[in-house]
Design goal:
With 620 residues, this protein is an alpha+beta fold. 15% of the residues lie in helices and 38% in strands. It has ten helices and 37 strands.
């Protein structure tokens, strides 16, 4: 295996930079959250909607940072209103208002997490979701700026999402812990259920008082208005799985519905009129993802991602008479990409048939390095996304370009169960997690081998969380296909996961596998820790010590089983990291550790960390 030198180094990946998270438009200005890697703060910038003036830093006190741990995974918690910018302050677990760099605590004593704040000028209030940090019980609450008092609006359900207000009306999404929100949830308006019995997403009052929301039709997640499917003839999915708060796939601008939808795993932005979706055409590089959609007046704000360009905060200005875009403005561009153009691999979507005869989509990234020798079959790294209810896209990703710029090909698979392809595609995995998704990965490798896209003796597999579970399952089921693996906070023991996981996912596996404990034998069958006798492939295990979703003891179980069987392995514990590494140094180290492990497996080059040992690392 030849590893090529790449400009995507640790210092390049850790260079001071910014990342965008959420976008709001208010009173002729775009407000957007900015994460500063070098000062570890999530703050707010603003700029006029036509970008005539320079961006303004609205949060200059770095003691405050926007963030929430609601439902473990968090999400957006920021709104803008006449009183100022309202946000969840991560260090204190309070709702704080800032205006002209003056900070005022509005709600909270450190006992709750907050999300989905929305302002209502009709009664001068904000409405938001609360979660107790110990019991994890949730409710919807309202704070009145006039009386300075709070009122509980909704309680009794296990989970709440996306409250929306119009004059005296309030609507929201709720569900019970016996199901995930994409399987069974409810849209509620003023305490009355208006839609139930399937998955829902993003209730939203437009300025006329019409209530919009997304609903699973059994084929696709479509947009409804006052109970009517207004996208019934559109073969697209207008849905994002509710792992975090603040996701939106549509907004109403005047009388124009602007929406983002996924067709065969590719995201598009367009307008919906008379039941038809008309894509918008963007100049230069077409965006691959559109996030945090928000509108006021005739303007729409959002964050855009691209396959080969840095992220942007964007505004569109709509001519409502005929729904045409009259101006497109880039508000802020993130730091330039750390790779020169000649090193950036552009993916292509491929499709292959799995063992059930169904089509599976994946993105194939060819190796890209100007110093590579020609006509040599590259090693292949197979990536399995997390979730498993989730989706991989073709947006630029350092964690993929790291490999392609060093001479690897990468296969990033949207296995059965992924979102963005319609309900049938997603529901394939029900009852078959750990089997069908893993089989899809193996069939993807065979496609690449049969089509001359990789070296069949240098196939590696890597994944995190549910993707890490797929890695372990694949190495048990297909040891002759995969020659090395890396499990990143991956699940090894399903029994442990059921007993130790958090409230949000407490019964997730009832659908993915079978109801527990009635079908404990199936959990035995699907747990990689029960099948270590099948393992013969070297495995690197990367784990955070503070992971509440996949406890570190699962990583130790797999490590111990491998060492007992004398299979080369290493366990690296990252001190203070949770489910998803946050520290830039930990992120970078984990990539280099994985690279060195593959070099060890294929070239017997000793890595900088000990093999067959546990290493604990702490980064400040």
């Amino acid at each position: 295996m030849q590893i090529y030198s790449s400009p995507l180094t640790v210092s390049a990946m850790n260079a001071p930079g910014i990342a965008f998270q959420s976008v709001r438009i208010y009173n002729g200005r775009v407000y957007y959250t900015v994460q500063h890697a070098h000062i570890k703060q999530v703050g707010v910038y603003s700029r006029d909607i036509y970008a005539h003036q320079a961006p303004k830093n609205e949060m200059q006190n770095t003691d405050y940072t926007i963030g929430t741990r609601i439902n473990v995974y968090g999400g957006e918690c920021m709104c803008v209103c006449p009183h100022g910018i309202i946000f969840a302050n991560a260090p204190t677990h309070t709702l704080v208002m800032v205006k002209n760099n003056v900070y005022t605590t509005l709600v909270g004593n450190g006992a709750y997490c907050y999300a989905d704040v929305v302002y209502n000028g009709y009664d001068n209030t904000i409405t938001y979701v609360c979660e107790h940090i110990t019991t994890h019980n949730q409710h919807i609450e309202r704070y009145n700026f006039t009386t300075k008092k709070t009122t509980t609006i909704a309680t009794g359900a296990d989970f709440y999402h996306c409250p929306t207000v119009w004059q005296g009306d309030t609507a929201w999404l709720e569900w019970d812990k016996t199901a995930m929100p994409w399987d069974n949830s409810r849209i509620v308006k003023n305490g009355t259920v208006v839609s139930a019995g399937c998955g829902h997403f993003q209730p939203y009052f437009c300025r006329s008082g019409d209530l919009y929301y997304v609903k699973d039709t059994g084929l696709y997640h479509h947009i409804y208005c006052n109970g009517k499917n207004i996208t019934a003839t559109v073969h697209m999915d207008f849905y994002m799985p509710l792992w975090v708060y603040g996701m939106r796939t549509f907004t109403v601008v005047g009388g124009t519905l602007v929406a983002i939808g996924s067709k065969d795993g590719i995201w598009h932005m367009g307008t919906v009129s008379d039941g038809q979706f008309t894509p918008m055409v963007f100049k230069n590089t077409p965006a691959s993802e559109f996030l945090s959609l928000h509108s006021t007046g005739n303007s729409v704000g959002f964050m855009a991602k691209y396959p080969d360009a840095p992220d942007t905060v964007h505004t569109l200005h709509i001519k409502t008479a005929d729904s045409t875009v009259i101006q497109s403005t880039v508000i802020h561009t993130a730091n330039r990409l750390p790779l020169p153009e000649e090193y950036i691999s552009n993916p292509r979507a491929i499709h292959f048939t799995n063992g059930d005869g169904d089509l599976v989509q994946a993105f194939y990234y060819p190796p890209k390095n100007p110093h590579m020798a020609p006509d040599i079959l590259p090693p292949l790294l197979v990536k399995s996304h997390g979730g498993p209810t989730g989706q991989t896209t073709n947006s630029y990703n350092n964690k993929i370009q790291f490999w392609t710029s060093r001479g690897f090909a990468v296969l990033d698979v949207n296995y059965s169960g992924s979102t963005g392809f319609g309900s049938t595609y997603r529901n394939r995995l029900n009852g078959r997690w750990g089997e069908l998704d893993v089989s899809d990965l193996a069939y993807g490798v065979r496609y690449c081998i049969d089509n001359g896209l990789c070296h069949k003796q240098q196939v590696c597999i890597s994944g995190s969380s549910a993707g890490g579970y797929a890695v372990l399952c694949a190495l048990c089921a297909y040891p002759d296909i995969f020659k090395a693996g890396c499990s990143i906070y991956g699940i090894g023991n399903l029994h442990t996961l059921v007993n130790d996981t958090h409230k949000f996912e407490a019964q997730y596996l009832d659908t993915l596998i079978a109801p527990y404990p009635t079908h404990k034998h199936i959990y035995d069958t699907r747990s990689p820790i029960r099948h270590t006798q099948k393992l013969k492939t070297p495995i690197l295990i990367l784990q955070g010590t503070e992971d509440p979703v996949v406890p570190p003891n699962q990583a130790r179980e797999i490590y111990t089983a491998l060492t007992h069987r004398h299979i080369p392995t290493a366990l690296i514990l990252y001190q203070g990291e949770g489910h998803g590494f946050k520290n830039p140094q930990a992120k970078a180290h984990s990539l280099y550790a994985e690279q060195q492990f593959y070099q060890f497996v294929f070239n017997t080059t000793p890595p900088d960390y000990p093999i067959n040992a546990i290493t604990t690392l702490a980064f400040t």
